[in-house]
Design goal:
The complex is a heterotetramer. By secondary structure, chain B is mainly alpha-helical. Chain B is globular. Chain B has one domain: ABC transporter involved in vitamin B12 uptake, BtuC, CATH 1.10.3470. Chain B has helices spanning about 1-30, 40-55, 60-85, 90-110, 145-160, 165-175, 175-180, 185-210, 225-235, 240-260, 265-285, and strands spanning about 125-130, 140. Helix content of chain B is about 70%, strand content about 0%. Chain C is of the alpha/beta class. Chain C contains 16 helices and 20 strands. Chain C has a six-stranded mixed β-sheet with strand order 6-7-8-3-9-10, sandwiched between helices. Chain C has a six-stranded mixed β-sheet with strand order 16-17-18-13-19-20, sandwiched between helices. In chain C, strand 7, helix 6 (about 170-185) and strand 8 form a beta-alpha-beta unit. In chain C, helix 13 runs parallel beside helix 14. By secondary structure, chain D is mainly alpha-helical. Chain D has a two-stranded antiparallel ribbon. Chains in contact: A-B, A-D, B-C, B-D, C-D. The interface between A and D is medium-sized, with 32 and 35 residues. Bound molecules: adenosine-5'-triphosphate (2 copies) and magnesium ion (MG) (2 copies). One adenosine-5'-triphosphate binds near residues 18 and 432 of chain C.
C-alpha cells in the first residue's frame, strides 16, 4: 500500500514523473496507490502526512519535500514503521526517510552535446523556472555538453521565476531566438511552442515531450522513477528497507534517467552525430564518463 | 535597432491579453461595476476555449466558447452585483475563486493529471503585416492582437460617440438620472458586462488558442489583477488604458530580453513597477481621479 | 366637459404602516395646469412618483386615453407621454446639456453631436427655453439645470409634465421665467401638474387646484372659484392658519452664540455664504427665514461643526469654537439638530447607541463602555421624550418622528446653552411637530438660545422672537417677530431689493 | 399573499440564514462532485464529519483555523469601520517578513522575550504595510480597495526578490529565509499536536474583537464610522482617525497571522507561505457577519472545509480544487442569503383593481 503527497499539482512535471511511475506500478498490480496533490507550502503537508500515517498506515509514502523539508522529516521520525521516500535536496534521515532527486544531468549533458552540434549560430537558449539546485545542475550539465560540442557555444539562460507561466516561458524563448539562439532547451512548458513557431530544434525535459511537436522536439533528458519505485517495493516487501540516498536509481546506469527516444530524428541527423551520441551514452552507462555535477546558478 | 524592433514585437504579444482584459474591465467599470472576477474569468475562458477547440477540432468553436464563458461569468457578476446588489469586491473575489476552482477541477477530471500539458493540433496562426519591411517583426502577431489594437479606438469611439456609450456612461455616473430618463439601468449594466465579458473571454482565448495552443496551470498568472491596475492607470479611458498595457508589456518584454542578452536584472522590481506607478498615479490624482461616480454602488430605485 | 387625458382611480400607496396615498381619484385634462397642494408629508411626491412609474401603486389604476395602463418604470411612463421633473435633479453632471437631454432617446446608434445639438437647440427654442446644448451640466446654475430637466421631458414629447416643487430652489426672476414657460406649454396643449407649498403660486399659474392632506385627496377646486384662505383651510384642515406669534418678548441681551464673518465657497468657487454675522441671545428663539438653497445648509453645517468655512469664527459665550470639529461644539454646549435627520442618526445602530454616541465620553471614562449607564440613559430619554422604541431596537425600524425625537432627546437633555435646530419638523405629522415645538420653547424658557432654520415660514413666525432673512448667502434683513410683516419678509426672501429693512 | 418588506428579519430567521447558506452551497457543489464521479454524500461525510471524529484531525483544524481566524479578525476590524481592506494578504506577508528578519537574530534571547519580539515585529510589519493605503485613503481619499490589492502583489514580488536573492538558502539552495532562532519558535500548546501559540493568539484576537466592538468606546465609534460616516461625524466621532486606526489594527493582526505562520509552522519564510489566507479572511469576515462569534465559527468552518476537502479528495479521488469551489460558492451564497436579513415577511392583501 503506497501513498504519495505532492506539494504541487500532478500536472507539474516533477511530481508528474513520480505520479506516473506509481500509477504504472499500480497498473501492474504491485501496489495500491492513493495520492494528494496541490498540498502547497503552507503547512498542509505535515497534516496530510500525519493523517495518512494514522489512518491508512501505508507501507510507503512517496512525495516531494521541497519547501516542506522540516515537516516531512518530523513526521517521518514519528512513524518509523512507514517508509518515507521523498524528493529532497538534502540527505536521508535515519531510520526511515530515503531521498531521491531527478538526477537527469547525464541525459541533460547528452542533450547539450547534441544541441551544440545542431546549433548553427553557436547560440543556444535555455528557459528554466527558478535557479534552484535541481534545476541548476541540469542546466549546467546541458551547458557542459553544448560547450564540449562547440567550445565557442554561447548558452543563454533565462529564469521565468515561476513554475507555471507558459506564456512567459514562450516569450523568454522568443527573446533568446532574437538574441541568436537557434536551439532551445525547454526546462519549462511554453518553450517548445516558441521553437515550433520559429522552426527550430528544441529539447524537452523530464518526460518525453516529442508528442507536443514531433518535428521540433529532438529529444531531452527524461527522468524515470520506475527503478526507484521498484527498488523500494522490493525492499519494503523484503523487510530490508533502510533510509538511504536513492540517487543512483535516478541516474542513467540504473535506468532512472535517459535520453528521450529520437523519434525518427536518427534518420534526419547525421549518422556521425548519432553514433557519437550513442557512444557517449554508452560511456556514461558503463561509468567511463562522469558528467560533472554543478548546482551553482549558471553564470 | 533589431533589438528594439523585436522588443516591440514581444511587447505586443505580452500586452494583448492584458489589454483585452483591461478594456473589458474599463467598459464594466464605466458602467459602475468593479469586477474583481477578471482573473478567474480569464482562466476559465482559456480553459473552456481550449477544451471546445480540442473536442470539436475547430478553433473558431473554441473561441466562441471562450467568449461565451467570459460573458456568462460577467453576467453572473451582474446577477450578484447588479440584480442582488451584493458588495462588489466580495462578489468579484468570489467569482475569481469559483472560476479558477472550476477550471482546474475540470482540467483534472478531463485530462486526468497528464504531466505534459494537453495541446492543440493547430492553434491560431500569426498574420504578418508590412511583409519584408523592417517593421515585420513587430507586426507578426496573432489576429487577436490586431483585434485588440483595433478595439482601442473602437471602444473609445463606442463610449464617446454612440448611444450605447452614452447610456453606459450614464449608468456609471448617475444611474438615477438614467432611470428617470427611461433607461433600464440594470439592462445597460448587463450590456456592459456582456461586452466586457466577451473581451475577457477573448483575453483567455488568446492565451490558450493563439499564444500557446495548450492549457496548463498558471496560464493567467496574475494578468487579471494587472488589468485592474491598468484600468486605473488609464483613468478609465481606452486610449490611456492602451498606454498602460503597453508599459506593462514593455517592462515584461524588456526584462525577458535583457535576461536573454545575459544582463542580470532585479526582475521583480520591473514586474512590480506598474503596480507602484499605478499607486503613485492614484496618490497624485487623489480625489481628482475620475472614478465613474457610481462605481461600486448598486442601483436601487428608491421606495420601490 | 373635455375628455380627460389621464384618469387616476383609487390610487393607494403604503410605506409600511404609513398610508402615503389613500384611494386618490383625479382627472387630468389636456392643456391645463393643475396645482397640487399639501403640507409636508401629505403625499404629493408619492402620488406623482406613481404617475411616473417610480413607485408602484399598491392599489388602484391609471386610465390613459380611455384604456388602463400600468407604469412599471419611468420608461413606461415616458412612452405614454408623461414627463417628470423631480425636486432633486437627476442629471449627469459630467455630460453636456444635449447629452442629458437625448439620453435614452438618441434616435440612432451613432451620436452625431452636431445634429443632436441642433435638435436640442431647436426644441429648446421652440418651447422658449434658453439653453446652450454644449455646456456641461456641472457649470450650470440651478435654474438652468431645471430648464434642462424640463427640456428632457419635452424632448420626449411628453403630453403631461409633472414638476415637483420647481419653485423651491428658484429666484423670483427664475420663477417668472418658469411660469412663462409653463403657460407657453399649456398653449401648445400640454397638461402640467405643479407641486408647490406656496398658495400664491398655485393661484397664479393653475386652472385647478388639488389638495392632499395626510395622504387623502381633500378637495379639487377651480382656481378661479377659490382663494388662498380657502385653500389653506383645506390643506391644514383648520379654519384659518393660526399664525400665533410669539408674544413674550425676551428682555436680556446676553449673547450665547455669535458667528462672525462666515464665508463659504463651493467647489466651483462661488460664494454660497457671504460674510454672515449673527448673534444669538440667551432665552430667545432666533428664526432664520429663507427659500431653500440660499446658504442655510452651509450655515447649519458650520454651526453644527460639520463644515470649516473659508473665513469667520464662531464663539460660544465669548470663546471661539474649533470650527469643523463636531465634538468641540457638542462639548462646549451647542445642541445640534441636523437638517436631515438621517444624517443625525445611524440607522443600523441601536436606539440606545444613537442616544448616547454623541456624548460617549460621559459613558466611557476609561475607553470601556459603561453598558449599564448607557441603558439607563436610554431608558430615561425614551420615557421623557416619549420615543416609541426599546433601547435595543435598530434605529432603522423607527418612524421619522421617533427618529427626530432621538435627536432631540440626546441634545436637549444635556441642557445646551445654544440650540441649532435645522428643519426640526420637516416631514413630521402634526402631533410630532407640536411635540418638537414644545421642546424647543422649553429650551428657550430654560434660558438657552435657539437658532431655528426652517423653510416653513409659519413655523418661523410662530416660534421666533427675532427673525433674520437669508438670501443669496447673506443676511438681508432683521425683524422682531412681533413686528415682522409677512409681505416684507416674503419680498426679502425672494431677493427683492427695494424693501427697506 | 406573502411579500418581502424592508425591516429587520426576526431573530430565528437570522440564525437560520447561515445554515441555509451552507445547505444551498452543498446542493450546488454536489453538481461538481457528481461530475467528478463521486457520491456527494460520501464527499460531505469525508469532508465535514470524518475530520471531526479523530483527535489529530480535530487538532489540525485548529492549526489551519489559526491564520484564517487571524485574517478574519483583521478584515473584520477594517470592514466594520467601512474600510475595505483587501490587503490582508500583503499585510500577512509583511508581518511574516518582519518575523523572518528579526527571528534569526534572537538566538541568545530567552524564549519569552523572543516570542514577544516576534509578535511585535509581525504586528509592526502589518501596520507598516497597511499604513500606505490607509494614509492615502484618509488624506487623499484614494480608494483603498485598489491600493491594498495592488500592494499585495508588490510585497510578494519584494519577498520573492529576497528569497531568490540574498536569502537563498545556501545549503538546499531552495528559496527560503534563514531559520528563526529556536527561542523564537512558537511552542506547541497541546501535546502531540501542531497546535501552536498562534492559536491562542487567534483566540485572543477574537476576544479583542468582541470586546473592542461591543464594549469599548473606540469600537462603538468604529462601527458608527462604518455604518454611517456623515452621521458619525455629526455625533462627534473622529471618523478619519477611527478609520485610520482600524486600518492599522487590521494590518497589524494580519501581520500577526504572518508571523504566526513563520514562528509556529515553518520557522522560516518561504514563497507561497500563504495560499491566500488574506483573501480567505474576507470570506471568513463576511460569512461571520463581521462579528467575533461569527468569525470564530466561520474560521473553524472554513478550516474544516480546507482540511476536509483535501482529505475527501484523497479518500475519494476527487480533485483538491473542490475546496476552492466550496469556499467560493459558500461565500457567494452567504452574501445572497444574508440579503434576507434586511427583510421581513409580511402578509399583504393582493392588489385590488379599482371598482
Ligand atoms: N420611500 C419611502 N419610504 C417610506 N416612507 C416614505 C417614502 N417616501 C415617502 N414616505 C412617507 O410618505 C409620506 C408622504 O411623503 P411625500 O414625499 O409624498 O410627501 P410630500 O407631500 O411630497 O411632502 P413634502 O411637501 O415634504 O415634499 C411621508 O410621511 C413620508 O415620510
Ligand atoms: N426611507 C424609508 N425606508 C424604509 N422604511 C421607512 C422609510 N421611511 C419610513 N419608513 C417606515 O415607514 C413607517 C412610517 O414612517 P413615517 O416616518 O412616515 O412614520 P409616521 O407614521 O409618520 O410616524 P411619525 O409620526 O413618528 O413620523 C415606519 O415604520 C418606518 O419604519
Ligand atoms: Mg415632496
Ligand atoms: Mg412621518
Amino acid at each position: 500500500k503506497v501513498f504519495a503527497a505532492y506539494a504541487t499539482a500532478i500536472e507539474e512535471p516533477w511530481d508528474g514523473v513520480i505520479h506516473q511511475a506509481l500509477l504504472a506500478a499500480q497498473e501492474a498490480g504491485q501496489i495500491s496507490y492513493d495520492f494528494s496533490d496541490e498540498i502547497g507550502y503552507s503547512g498542509d503537508m505535515e497534516r496530510i502526512l500525519r493523517e495518512v500515517a494514522d489512518e491508512q498506515a501505508p507501507a510507503v509514502i512517496f512525495g516531494d519535500a521541497f519547501g516542506n523539508e522540516e515537516a516531512v522529516r518530523r513526521v517521518a521520525k514519528d512513524y518509523p514503521e512507514i517508509a518515507f521516500v521523498f524528493g529532497s535536496g538534502l540527505g536521508p534521515s535515519e531510520p526511515n526517510l530515503s531521498v531521491f532527486d531527478n538526477w537527469i544531468h547525464e541525459p541533460a549533458y547528452l542533450s547539450g552535446l547534441l544541441a551544440g552540434n545542431l546549433s548553427k549560430s553557436g547560440t543556444i537558449g535555455v528557459v528554466a523556472g527558478y535557479p534552484v539546485p535541481e534545476v541548476n545542475r541540469i542546466v549546467n550539465a546541458f551547458i557542459v555538453g553544448a560547450q564540449e560540442a562547440n567550445a565557442d557555444a554561447d548558452v543563454k539562460v533565462t529564469f521565468i521565476n515561476s513554475w507555471f507561466d507558459p506564456a512567459a516561458a514562450k516569450e523568454a524563448a522568443l527573446a533568446q531566438v532574437d538574441a541568436g539562439a537557434d536551439v532551445l532547451f525547454a526546462e519549462r512548458f511554453g518553450v517548445i511552442e516558441a521553437a515550433q513557431e520559429k522552426g527550430l530544434y528544441a529539447f524537452g525535459s523530464m518526460s518525453d515531450q516529442n508528442g507536443l511537436a514531433p518535428d521540433t522536439v529532438v529529444t531531452g533528458p527524461v527522468w524515470h522513477m520506475e527503478p526507484t519505485v521498484q527498488y523500494i517495493i522490493k525492499q519494503v516487501a523484503g523487510g530490508t528497507y533502510t533510509a538511504q540516498d536513492l540517487k543512483d536509481f535516478s541516474m542513467m546506469a540504473k535506468g532512472g534517467a535517459s535520453l528521450a527516444p529520437l523519434h525518427g530524428f536518427e534518420t534526419s541527423l547525421s549518422a556521425d552525430l548519432v553514433e557519437m551520441l550513442q557512444s557517449r551514452e554508452q560511456e556514461i552507462l558503463t561509468g567511463l564518463y562522469r558528467v560533472p555535477i554543478n548546482e551553482e546558478a549558471p553564470k | 535597432m533589431d533589438f528594439v524592433i523585436a522588443l516591440l514585437g514581444a511587447t505586443l504579444r505580452i500586452f494583448t491579453p492584458i489589454l483585452l482584459a483591461a478594456l473589458g474591465e474599463t467598459l464594466i467599470e464605466r458602467a459602475g461595476i468593479l469586477n474583481l472576477g477578471i482573473e478567474g474569468t480569464m482562466l476559465l475562458s482559456a480553459f473552456s476555449g481550449f477544451v471546445v477547440a480540442q473536442l470539436s477540432g475547430s478553433l473558431w468553436l473554441g473561441l466562441s466558447a471562450a467568449l461565451l464563458t467570459g460573458i456568462l461569468l460577467c453576467v453572473f457578476m451582474g446577477l450578484l452585483s447588479v440584480t442582488l446588489g451584493l458588495n462588489q469586491h466580495v462578489a468579484g473575489l468570489g467569482i475569481t475563486l469559483l472560476a479558477s476552482g472550476l477550471a482546474l477541477f475540470s482540467f483534472r477530471i478531463l485530462y486526468g493529471g497528464s504531466s505534459t500539458p494537453p495541446s492543440l493540433e493547430r492553434s491560431f496562426a500569426q498574420l504578418a503585416l508590412f511583409k519584408g519591411t523592417a517593421l515585420e517583426p513587430i507586426f507578426s502577431q496573432y489576429g487577436i492582437t490586431y483585434i485588440a489594437l483595433l478595439l482601442v479606438p473602437i471602444l473609445g469611439w463606442l463610449l464617446m460617440h454612440t448611444s450605447f456609450g452614452l447610456r453606459l456612461r450614464s449608468v456609471g455616473e448617475n444611474p438615477e438620472a438614467a432611470d428617470i430618463a427611461g433607461l433600464n439601468v440594470y439592462w445597460v449594466r448587463y450590456q456592459a458586462l456582456i461586452v466586457g465579458g466577451a473581451l475577457m473571454g477573448l483575453a483567455g482565448a488568446y492565451l490558450s488558442l493563439a499564444q500557446l495552443g495548450a492549457f496548463t496551470h498558471g496560464m493567467v498568472n496574475g494578468r487579471g489583477w494587472v488589468a485592474i491596475a491598468i484600468v486605473i492607470f488609464g483613468n478609465w479611458q481606452p486610449s490611456k488604458v492602451f498606454y498602460g498595457a503597453l508599459l506593462f508589456g514593455f517592462l515584461q518584454a524588456l526584462q525577458l530580453r535583457l535576461q536573454a542578452q545575459g544582463i542580470p536584472l532585479p526582475y521583480e522590481a520591473l514586474l512590480a513597477l506598474p503596480y507602484i506607478i499605478t499607486i503613485i498615479i492614484l496618490a497624485l490624482a487623489g480625489r481628482n481621479a475620475s472614478y465613474p461616480a457610481a462605481l461600486l454602488k448598486a442601483y436601487r430605485r428608491e421606495g420601490a | 366637459m373635455p375628455i380627460p387625458f389621464l384618469s387616476i382611480k383609487n390610487l393607494s400607496k403604503r410605506f409600511g404602516s404609513l398610508s402615503a396615498n389613500e384611494a386618490i381619484s383625479l382627472e387630468l385634462y389636456p392643456a391645463e395646469v393643475l396645482a397640487l397642494l399639501g403640507e409636508n408629508g401629505a403625499g404629493k411626491t408619492t402620488l406623482t412618483k406613481m404617475l411616473y412609474g417610480i413607485y408602484q401603486p399598491d392599489e388602484g389604476e391609471l386610465i390613459l386615453a380611455g384604456s388602463p395602463v400600468r407604469f412599471r418604470s419611468p420608461a413606461d411612463a415616458i412612452r405614454h407621454g408623461i414627463g417628470f421633473v423631480s425636486q432633486h435633479f437627476s442629471l449627469v453632471p459630467s455630460f453636456t446639456v444635449a447629452e442629458n437631454v437625448v439620453l435614452g432617446r438618441e434616435g440612432s446608434a451613432l451620436l452625431n453631436k452636431k445634429v443632436l445639438n441642433d435638435k436640442v437647440r431647436q426644441t429648446a427654442e421652440h418651447f422658449g427655453l434658453a439653453l446652450d446644448p454644449t455646456s456641461l451640466i456641472r457649470d450650470l446654475s440651478v435654474g438652468e439645470q431645471q430648464r434642462v430637466e424640463i427640456l428632457k421631458s419635452l424632448y420626449r414629447n411628453c403630453q403631461l409634465l409633472i414638476l415637483d416643487e420647481p419653485t423651491a430652489v428658484l429666484t423670483p426672476q427664475d420663477v417668472d421665467k418658469l411660469f412663462e414657460t409653463l403657460r407657453n406649454l399649456q398653449n401648445q396643449g400640454l397638461s402640467v401638474i405643479i407641486i408647490t407649498h406656496k398658495l400664491e403660486e398655485a393661484i397664479a399659474i393653475s386652472q385647478r387646484v388639488a389638495v392632499l392632506r395626510l395622504g387623502k385627496l381633500v378637495g379639487v377646486e377651480q382656481t378661479q372659484n377659490t382663494n388662498a384662505k380657502a385653500l389653506a383651510k383645506l390643506m391644514v384642515g383648520r379654519d384659518s392658519v393660526p399664525v400665533t406669534r410669539n408674544e413674550q418678548h425676551h428682555q436680556e441681551k446676553t449673547t450665547v452664540l455669535a458667528a462672525k464673518g462666515l464665508t463659504v465657497k463651493d467647489k466651483r468657487g462661488l460664494t454660497t455664504l457671504d460674510n454672515v454675522t449673527l448673534e444669538l441671545h440667551a432665552g430667545e428663539v432666533l428664526g432664520i427665514a429663507g427659500v431653500a438653497g440660499n446658504g442655510q445648509t452651509e450655515l447649519v453645517d458650520i454651526l453644527t461643526g460639520m463644515l470649516k468655512p473659508e473665513k469667520g469664527q464662531v464663539l460660544l459665550a465669548g470663546k471661539t469654537l474649533d470650527l469643523g470639529n463636531t465634538r468641540a461644539f457638542e462639548v462646549a454646549g451647542v445642541g445640534r439638530i441636523p437638517e436631515d435627520r438621517l444624517k443625525g442618526v445611524i440607522a443600523d445602530l441601536s436606539v440606545a447607541e444613537n442616544l448616547t454616541l454623541e456624548h460617549i465620553p460621559q459613558f466611557s471614562k476609561t475607553g470601556h463602555l459603561n453598558a449599564k449607564a448607557i441603558r439607563q440613559e436610554a431608558e430615561n430619554l425614551i420615557t421623557t421624550f416619549q420615543i416609541k422604541a426599546k433601547p435595543n431596537d435598530k434605529t432603522r425600524t423607527l418612524s421619522g418622528g421617533n427618529i427626530q425625537k432621538i435627536i432631540l432627546a440626546r441634545t436637549l437633555s444635556k441642557n445646551p446653552s445654544a440650540v441649532i435646530a435645522a428643519q426640526p419638523t420637516r416631514g413630521l405629522d402634526i402631533g410630532a411637530t407640536n411635540f418638537v415645538h414644545e421642546q424647543l420653547l422649553a429650551q428657550k424658557e430654560r434660558g438657552a438660545g435657539v437658532l431655528l432654520l426652517s423653510e416653513d415660514l409659519d413655523e418661523v413666525l410662530r416660534l421666533s422672537d427675532r427673525i433674520l432673512v437669508i438670501y443669496g448667502g447673506k443676511i438681508v434683513g432683521e425683524f422682531m417677530a412681533a413686528e415682522a410683516e409677512l409681505e416684507t419678509l416674503g419680498l426679502l426672501m425672494a431677493g427683492s431689493k427695494d424693501v427697506a429693512a | 399573499m406573502l411579500r418581502l418588506e424592508r425591516g429587520s428579519a426576526p431573530l430565528w430567521l437570522r440564525a437560520l440564514l447561515p445554515i441555509a447558506a451552507v445547505l444551498i452551497t452543498f446542493l450546488l457543489v454536489s453538481l461538481a462532485i457528481w461530475a467528478a464521479g463521486a457520491n456527494p454524500l460520501d464527499v460531505f461525510y469525508e469532508m465535514l464529519i470524518k475530520p471531526l471524529s479523530k483527535r489529530t484531525s480535530r487538532l489540525e483544524i485548529l492549526v489551519q483555523a489559526t491564520p484564517l481566524i487571524l485574517t478574519g479578525v483583521a478584515v473584520t476590524y477594517a470592514f466594520a469601520a467601512g474600510y475595505y481592506n483587501i490587503g490582508a494578504e500583503g499585510q500577512l506577508y509583511a508581518g511574516a517578513l518582519m518575523g523572518a528578519l528579526v527571528g534569526p537574530k534572537l538566538t541568545s534571547v530567552p524564549a519569552f522575550f523572543a516570542i514577544i519580539v516576534m509578535l511585535l515585529a509581525g504586528f509592526l510589519g502589518g501596520v507598516l504595510w497597511a499604513l500606505i493605503p490607509a494614509l492615502l485613503k484618509v488624506r487623499l481619499k484614494v480608494d483603498e480597495v485598489v491600493t491594498t490589492l495592488l500592494l499585495n502583489s508588490v510585497i510578494v514580488f519584494f519577498i520573492s526578490a529576497l528569497l531568490n536573492g540574498v536569502w537563498r538558502d545556501p545549503i538546499s539552495g531552495w528559496p527560503r529565509s534563514p531559520a528563526i532562532a529556536e527561542s523564537a519558535q512558537f511552542p506547541s500548546i497541546i501535546s502531540r499536536s501542531r497546535v501552536h501559540l498562534g492559536f491562542i493568539l487567534a483566540v485572543l484576537a477574537l476576544l479583542s474583537l468582541w470586546w473592542v466592538l461591543k464594549r469599548t468606546r473606540f469600537g462603538l465609534e468604529l462601527r458608527a464610522s462604518g455604518l454611517g460616516k456623515e452621521a458619525a461625524r455629526f455625533m462627534g466621532v473622529p471618523v478619519a482617525k477611527t478609520m485610520l486606526t482600524a486600518a492599522l489594527i487590521s494590518g497589524g493582526i494580519a501581520g500577526l497571522a504572518g508571523v504566526s505562520e513563520v514562528a509556529g509552522v515553518h520557522y522560516y519564510l518561504i514563497d507561497g507561505l500563504s495560499p491566500g489566507y488574506g483573501y480567505t479572511g474576507i470570506i471568513v469576515a463576511t460569512f461571520g457577519g463581521l462579528q467575533a462569534l461569527g468569525v470564530a465559527i466561520a474560521g473553524l468552518f472554513l478550516a474544516l472545509v480546507d482540511t476536509g476537502a483535501l482529505s475527501a479528495s484523497r479518500a475519494l479521488g476527487i480533485p483538491a480544487y473542490l475546496g476552492d469551489i466550496v469556499q467560493a460558492t459558500l461565500l457567494i451564497v452567504t452574501l445572497a442569503v444574508l440579503l434576507l436579513n434586511r427583510y421581513r415577511i409580511v402578509r399583504s392583501k393582493p392588489m385590488r383593481k379599482a371598482p
